[in-house]
Amino acid sequence: MTLRLGRRSFADTDLLVMAIVNRTPDSFYDKGATFGDDAAMARVDAVVEQGADLVDIGGVKAAPGGEVSVTEEIGRVVPFVAAVRQRHPDLVISVDTWRAEVAREALAAGADVLNDAWGGADPELVDVAAEHDAALVCTHTGGAAVRTRPFRTGYESDVVGQVVAGVVRYAERALDAGVAQESILIDPAHDFGKNTHHTLEITRRLDEHVATGWPVLVSLSNKDFVGETLDRPVDERVVGTLATTAVSAWLGARVYRVHEVAETRQVLDMVATMRGDRPPTRTIRGLA
Amino acid sequence: MTLVAAAIVPAAPALLPRMGGAADPLRPLRQVSREAVADAVASAPGAGVVVVSGWGHSDSGGAARRPVRRDWPLDAPSGAERFTTGQVPPGALPTGLEIGRQLLADGTEARLVSVADDAAPHECLALGADLVADGPTVLVVVADGSAKRTVKAPGHLDERAEGFDAGLSRALAAADADALAALDPVLADELWCRGRAALQVLAGAAGGSPFAPSVDHDEAPYGVGYLVATWTPPPRSRPTTQ
């Protein structure tokens, strides 16, 4: 299915890099590196240069931490969305928020995509997406409360089946609310409401998400399931992340939310070429 | 002898569409080659066009033993898959003929003739004479020089390769059929010059006819000698338009 993210459409075979741009003082990986306006804009410029197809701007870290009010989140995100829109008129801008009030302001400022990492915690978010003809990322959290960590979370029946059913249910709710069919993505939400075993099961069976027909977004970057799988601290997870990226691409995921844009672009180009969806760049060995 | 014009173009598989990847590194060479073929054909209105190239071990087309001469239909299936999936249909063209076919302008009628890579010089010369026996003919010769021009070349560096290719270039620049006829097949083999047989077909077709020769390209960017040349009718023999 052709994927439309606001102002741009993408072919079925395109693999898209969504660059994370945190407007937070405390996110787990970059630890506030782009909290300031100038640093954040420099990050946007850099990731565009490195081949990012879209940026994902977030004002609240996912993990538990200091309370961020709606007003504070809007202040962190919305003026910056407007500035990015002005500087990069054709760039697809996603906003990482679960709050309908924040989403409404961000879309009015020029955002194209709502990345709801918390699985529809705010029921009005789908309506805001529909009102603005925005794209929506429908994630699965297994009912986890916003900004909580899993604690002895168990699934009493097939975890993949439940996650697929959950994201499809959310996607259909978005469709019913008026979000365009070609602008709805699903995301199993690695580690959200899931321990490492759960996430690995989802990762190895990602094709079951792809088989729903909804385009699949994966957010793998430097997460704890990589860290626990390889026993690596947060700053040593890039290799594991890229390995997971390659397998996810092979299994059919379309969009990759990442910290490392250039490395991810290379991995995705490599996999797309192995799949036969992209020509090699330059082939002359044995053919000269 | 009724060879009226000839174009000599390289036989690199990367000249085939999509073979070089998105960057298509031989695009400029393909363009120069296409122009050479067009110039040769245009210089001899009404002449029949024959594409000739070697038929080598790397594209046996299913034949256990390659005849000195084989004629191929102009619509024979492509053999390009031999360089990708290996799923080559029966009767697929040798690569050189396929390159020659795609360099022809759309709708150009042509005969496609392969010569065995290992044909003896006298067999090549006789084949060349035979190809032009029926009337005015333009030959498109798909052939290149040594593949041992540099350390990074497919066949690694052979110090003799540069001189060998320089000799080819001089022969083409002077339309010197005798020099082509005298190419040593053993040395050519040692230098991985797969174009020797086809160039000797050209020599046999040319006989002693005069031509206005031109070498348009003479490089070895990947260690293989690529020559693009045309032999067109000398000015005095061209039809006047007055």
From TrEMBL, chain A:
InterPro entries: DHP_synth-like, DHP_synth_dom, Dihydropteroate_synth-like_sf, Pterin-binding_dom. Keywords: Folate biosynthesis, Magnesium, Metal-binding, Transferase. Its EC number is 2.5.1.15. Pathway: Cofactor biosynthesis; tetrahydrofolate biosynthesis; 7,8-dihydrofolate from 2-amino-4-hydroxy-6-hydroxymethyl-7,8-dihydropteridine diphosphate and 4-aminobenzoate: step 1/2. One of its GO terms (biological process) is tetrahydrofolate biosynthetic process. Has very low affinity for the DHPS substrate 6-hydroxymethyl-7,8-dihydropterin-pyrophosphate, but can bind the inhibitor dapsone. Seems to lack dihydropteroate synthase activity, and does probably not function in folate metabolism. Catalyzes the condensation of para-aminobenzoate (pABA) with 6-hydroxymethyl-7,8-dihydropterin diphosphate (DHPt-PP) to form 7,8-dihydropteroate (H2Pte), the immediate precursor of folate derivatives. Belongs to the DHPS family. PANTHER family: FOLATE SYNTHESIS PROTEINS, INACTIVE DIHYDROPTEROATE SYNTHASE 2. This is Dihydropteroate synthase. It comes from Marihabitans asiaticum.
From TrEMBL, chain B:
This is Uncharacterized protein.
